[in-house]
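Support request, please re-run this one:
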Amino acid sequence: MVLALAKEIGMRKNEFAFFDSAQNDSQIETIYFGGGTPSVLTNEEINFLISEVYKNYKVAENPEITLEANPDDLSAERILELSKSLINRLSIGIQSFYEEDLKMMNRAHNSAEAIKCLQEATKYFDNISLDLIYGIPGMTDEMWKQNIETALSFGIPHISSYALTVEPKTALKKLIDAGKIAEPQDEVASNHFTILVETLQQNGFIHYELSNFGKENYFSKNNSAYWLGKKYIGIGPSAHSYDGEKRGWNIANNSLYLKSIQNDKLPIETEILTVSDRYNEYIMTGLRTIWGVSLDRIEKEFGSEYLNYLKQQAQKFLNDDLLFIENNILKPTSKGKFLTDGIASDLFYLNLEE
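Re-run finished. Output below.
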C-alpha cells in the first residue's frame, strides 16, 4: 500500500501544473495523514511518503504536516518516535475524558489513556489539535465544562468540537432504538455549543470555523484550505480531490485500488461542478468561517443573478438577527452560528439551468 501511495503521488504530479501560481496554489502548504489509521505507519514509511511529495511537487517552506491518531495508538514510545519523524502536528481524537461517554461511543481508548496521551504528546509537540464531542446523552453542562477545562489544562492550541450525530447501523443507534440510551437533544447540543464558544474565547481561542477554535498562528492550514476553496489532491483509497472546477474521489476498495495503481491507472472518478454547485459550496463553507461570504466575490464569480438571489434569500435571516453584513461580507451573528448549516441550505441556488 505504501508503495502504491508513493506511485500515485508521482502519477499525479502534473495536476498542480495547471493551478494558479499567482495564488500560490502551485505549491504544497500542508500534508495530512488522516482517515483510517495512519498511525500504523512506521517513521520510515511516513518519511518516505513525505519525501515522495517533495520529489514530485513544489513544497512551501515549513509546511504543516499532520498525523491523525487516537489515544490508543499513541503510546509514550510511539509519540517519542513520531517526534523524530517529519510530522510537526498531531490531531488526536480524544472525544471525551469521561469513561461512560467513551464506552457509549464505542471508542477503543479509555479516559486514562486520553490523559496519558496528552501528557506525553505535549512534551514533544507544540502544535496539537484535539477533538471533543458535545451533546452526548447524559452529559450535563457541568460535565461538558469539565471536559473543556481538562483539554485547556494541557495548553492545547487547537480544538475541533462537533455535536454527537447518530449514524444508521451503528452500536449507538441500536442502543437508542432499544431505549437503553436517550436520543441526543438539540437543546442540549445548543447549550453545550454556547458554553464551548464562550469558554474558549475567554481563553484566547479564535472561533475561526463553526467547529474549530485555534490560538493565533495555530489555525489548521489543512482544514482552512478546504474552507477557503483552495485546491487539494487526495492520495489513497477513498481520498477526495478538488481543483477548483471538478471533484474527484478514489475507489474505496483497497485491493481494487492497488490493482489499478499497479496497472498504471488512476482509480478515480470525477465530477465537473456546475456554477450553482460552486456557488452552493462557497455559501456552505464561507458561512462557517470568520471570513464569511464576500458579496463582491459572488457578483464577480457567479454574476448579478446569484447576488440578487442571495440577498433576497438572506433578508429574513438579516431581519431575525441571524446574519449580518459588514464590509460587504455576509456572516452569521453569535445567535446564528449554531444554525449556520440550516441557514446555508436556505441560501442554496437550486434547479438553476446551467
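The mean pLDDT is 92. Residues 298 and 304 are 8 Å apart (CA to CA).
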